[in-house]
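Protein in question quoted in full.
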Amino acid sequence: MPLVPDVRRVFGDEPFAQTGEPAVAVVDDRSRLIAVGGDVGWLQWSGDGTADQKWTGHRAGVYERDGLRCRHLVRSSYPVRSLAFHPVLPLLAVATGGYDGGYFFEGELLLVDLDTGTVVSALEDRREVRAVEWLSGTALRLVLSPPDDWDNPGAHGQGHTAVVERADWRAVADGAIGARELAAPPEPLPVRDSAEEARRLLAELAAEAGLPWSRRRRVWAVEGLEDGRVLAALDGVLAESWLPSGERQWAVGDEQGGRQLVPAAGGTSVWANSERRGRRSPADRETTRLVRIAVDGGRVLETADPEGPVVLVPGGGRTVLRPLEVPRGRTGRLVLLRSGGPAEGPGVSGFDPFNHAFPVRRAGRPYLLVGSDPGEPHVDKWVTALEADGTLRRLFPHSWAAEEHHGGGPAVETGRSLVHAGTVHHGHGLQPGGAYVVRRSLTDGAVRWRYRSDHPATALDTDGATVYVTCNSGSLVALDAGDGSVRWRTELRVGGAPTVGLSLAVAPGDRLLVGTVDGRVLEYALTR
């Protein structure tokens, strides 16, 4: 069994990265610990939403005041609302919850053992907990939202305050606090946003430690250059370049941030795009900021102006723009980016980020997932290639099992094959083994091997011998490119704390680059 590689370098590392955008933060002087609740974000944008199943970006982190090392990191199913250190015990109470958009206010009370990292979900029923406060070593005050807003239009401004007593809070088990202990009359609940206060506190703590802090999140794309530099696109940054020394060479800022990086012809520049969502009125449409950037100094060389939001589809030295807003029953036109100006291409049916996202690395020609029926473009999708003469050619059905509906996912071309990932649709959500990576012949779509997983892939790439796959569970898996067997598997960690890979690239110099959901780029040294 080949050895699992170690992280050799981390680009963009900053304190409190693991918890993303902070919502609440508290400092405990007794234990010299810091607790932070935040969100690293969803794993979808207008051009790709295939990795979002079974995902939560909500986090609660515990950090050491001396050095700001992350001691514990907890994934929460709900937004973190409030945090409270126990006055005596090594215990943290975490209030979580939110409105489900229909009727219910759901959440949990999490108790984190600060010695072991063990987490207990203490409520018997799912209830949004808006605030927690220790009144003593045995009494915990909870403020909860109403269970639902059914026949109660004022529910969103109400809370129920209860005090729960336990002789030993470290002995509390899952589901130990029932509804009877939480019964209390409703009272007005003022809405308090603690995010700004949390940002100010973390900035002060980082400054005290002499460290930068800029709230980096979600590295959507990463590429490695021949000279050892690393390019990345992430929230708030259209594109950036890191030197092998670990110093950031340049960055092109953007309000939303970059979603894709596609090397332009000649290798001296890169296309980067950023989605723009209308915010002021329903008449505002989504658009795309699309620019070509010189990799040497970060200078913007060219700006394209598509009519609406697009996704970049590269292959064979060409880059195609696929429109994302195509009315049902109609077709949209591909646009080919050329040195002499954009050229209109053939028509394609509609696009949605769950069925048609199909970013193919190392593509010898542009590949797209295209539905046969413009009225139902998500049904009967075909892997389709844009040929050199500008025509679209259907290669094979995206689903190799006629009875299954498959969603889109990342892919890579290798040895006259496509290795692509996706999920099998199920009415009750993603099922065990419902995510896959498959290698198929480009000639007829024949399946050469399949790898099943419980969690969708976020990215994949290959060096020809091995296929590297990141999943939204936090795993990095190396599959034998010939037969699909697992060569090795590891859980992504930085400084002992877990993270999740969102983008991935095999780079020159036997390097594997992984862009994470918390704004960092990990560099692994691959061995042959």
Summary: DSSP finds two helices and 43 strands in the chain.
